[in-house]
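Hello,

Following up on my earlier ticket. Below are the three sequence lines again, exactly as submitted.
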Amino acid sequence: MVTETKTGWTDSRVWMVASLVIVCLVSALGLSQVYLVTKPQIEKQKADAVNQALGQVLPNAASFEEKEDGLWYGLDSAGNRVGIVFRCDPRGYAGPVETMVGVDLEARVTGIRIASPAEGMKETPGLGLKARDDWFRDQFKGLTADQVRLKKDGGTLDAISAATITSRAVAAGVADGIRKYAPRLKTDDAPEPDAKEDTAPEREGMR
Amino acid sequence: MRKKPPRLKYFTSGIVLENPLLILMIGLCPALATTASARDGFGMGIAASFVLICSNIVVSLVRRWVPSSIRIPIFIIIISSFVTIADYALQAYQPGLYQVLGIFIPLIVVNCMILGRAEGFAYTHGVIDSILDALGKSIGFTLALGLMGIIRELFAAGTVFGFPVTPAGFREQPVLFMIFPPGAFLLIGVLKSIINKLTVKKET
Amino acid sequence: MKLNPAQIFIGAFLINNVLLFRFLGLCPFFGVSTAVSTAVGMSAAVMFVMLLASWVTWILFNTVLAPLGIVFLRTAVFILVIASLVQFVEMFLKKYVRALYSSMGIYLPLITTNCAILGVTFLNIDYRFNLLQSTVFAVGSGLGFGLVIVLFAAIRERLEYAPISGSFKGYPISFVAASLVSLAFYGFAGLFGVSL
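Thanks for your patience. The regenerated structure is below:
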């Protein structure tokens, strides 16, 4: 144990308080600098991740505009709406399976993306996780709400072997989502003229 | 000149004989939680090493001015500062890794190894010795975490650092068990028993 | 993701148990789970401090750190809060509640570096829980910690008498046992359709 009295003055009450204050101040100042330097980069990373996911499920769109939490409008380079992307959390075997779904103006699926485990996916690793495999996701392309159903349930989708609950959950979530958001495809909620500035408005929405 | 050998020992002891994870059984939480793949294991090890090395340096630099009765709170503030730096740096420049390691980055602050080295070594030794000690312990910890990550990834996915190393048939039906928490417990149990076997042999 | 308190409780208590699935608080888990009596004392202390720490850190984060924009001090503030809280509880119990102090007092100093406590306080913030949800989460996690550590202590008491071969004696067989307990807890997955 380090109990030997050292030079003495370090153990005075004044220095005890002063040293603690100094350490706290130096630490707080240093960290605030770190925070200021990294903050823009962190926000950019988050925005990039969302944009990448959006582009993956609605490839025709050049830019996206967040309309509400979990709903984006996809715009082409001229600012016309080409489809929507919505997020749904169907309940899988071990919890919600966060899924992003792109839908074109005819209410057909253009692509789906399932969050990785690191992003909050809690399905049985390896089995439920196969829902992220390309062959499973590609099956959804071009389907309407009524067609999004497992073969077992009278639809066209192959379920992932040993992960039927997850497969069925994703299919149901996608179908429900399309029905819920289909009215939003037709509303004349025209995009703002300035929506051509790709990055600024969508960054706003990412926060 | 006579000081040389013990100094080197500060460095080497941490790697094998006093390996923080496999011998001293310190830092179990991150070792089990973040070693689902080789990349995650090494990433966690490197983040913890960064904090350990920096805090050891700072503690040994300021040790003469630290009042002994409040040294622990001061060490904690120093350590948590470096933990926060690691946290934000990973978030900004390695977002994928950050999402996997998640809460275990800020939790480095309660890793017994780091406070233990600050209090038990850096507080009573010079800067050079403290760096050597921190480097040795860091390498030992990182290698142990990386080893667990490599083994678990090999069994659970048939890959190492994402590169396929097993026949395709194995990769289609791998030992998924190893990626689950029970697999992590089993692996460290087996590793520990191997080490017990080896150390007992050495002694006799 | 909106979860009602009952779902949060079941999730924290059984399904995503702090020890077995989140790997938080493993050091005391293997350290003090050698006998049922010590396990009970330790888990009582953990439950108590976990709840107090959740309240204090939640209030501090949402009334001071977040409004002032100094969230980057979270790690430092939380660990200092927990350390001083533990000190304070220890002094309080020593002075006023001797009976409780004698049963869980010796475990209190170990709790500061118990990552289950700090982990739960971080998760309360990361999951954007409100105060009620945080309370339920802390209670569920604390009880989950207690349940597993006491169960496991009972297993280890029996392991003492089991004929374990040389190199597996001690820690290794405990890890293997933990692996099996953890596997058993997978039976709770999907219970009431809950997950966190």
